[in-house]
Design goal:
The chain has six helices and six strands, in the order H-E-H-E-H-E-H-E-H-E-E-H. The chain has 178 residues and is α/β, with parallel strands linked by helices. The chain has a single domain, classed as Rossmann fold (3-Layer(aba) Sandwich). The strands form two sheets. The chain has a four-stranded mixed beta sheet with strand order 3-4-5-6, covered by helices on one side. A two-stranded parallel sheet has the order 1-2. Strand 1, helix 2 and strand 2 form a beta-alpha-beta unit. Helix 1 crosses helix 6. The longest helix has 28 residues. It is globular and about 50 Å long. The model has no long low-confidence stretch (mean pLDDT 95).
Length: 178
């Protein structure tokens, strides 16, 4: 999230982050977004009218693209329909491997190492109704080192994620305007 905000504020991508949606007012993401001058809307997936509240916040902010950074629940169909093809997520692996329900955070890096993979990386993809199954927009790769731990691999992949998400968003924006 912070990498996207920074890229927009620096003018290194043709978009600006105008809204961060967080399930809690005091989450790390919400606090960081406010520090960076971005409006935060609190919308919890546990709310009975979650889909309506989330869609209202997004439409009310006049946004064009939705970028997920750490969302741990599915995006409501109403949001996917309203922003068809414009909801993006980043995943810390080279999809389609190591994706799907339960594949998040260190679980992904542990699975990559346990499988003896020679490379890992990140994938920016369009969000669909199923976890990590949407069309791939961009992948960035890094080697898996012999002495890697889940933490060391995660750090290398995170550095790629900070590059990949703004780059993928820029590609899509340019493709739609071109």
């Amino acid at each position: 999230m912070a990498a996207l905000i920074q890229a927009g504020q620096a003018g290194s991508m043709p978009a600006s982050v105008v809204l961060v949606v967080s399930p809690r007012a005091e989450s790390v993401a919400a606090l960081r977004a406010r520090e960076m001058g971005v409006h935060v809307e609190v919308v919890s997936p546990k709310e009975p009218d979650y889909a309506e509240h989330l869609l209202g916040a997004l439409l009310g902010a006049g946004i064009d693209w939705v970028c997920l950074a750490g969302l741990m629940s599915k995006v409501p169909c109403e949001v996917l329909d309203a922003f068809s093809g414009r909801v993006l997520n980043i995943h810390p692996a080279l999809l389609p491997k190591y994706g799907g329900q339960g594949m998040w955070g260190m679980h992904v890096h542990e699975a990559v190492l346990a499988a003896g993979e020679k490379e890992s990386g990140c994938t920016v993809h369009v969000v669909t109704e199923e976890y990590d199954e949407g069309p791939i927009v961009l992948q960035m790769r890094c080697p898996v080192e012999q002495d890697d731990t889940p933490e060391s691999l995660a750090a290398r992949v995170l550095a790629l994620e900070h590059e990949a998400f703004p780059m993928a968003l820029e590609q899509l924006i340019e493709a739609r305007s071109g």
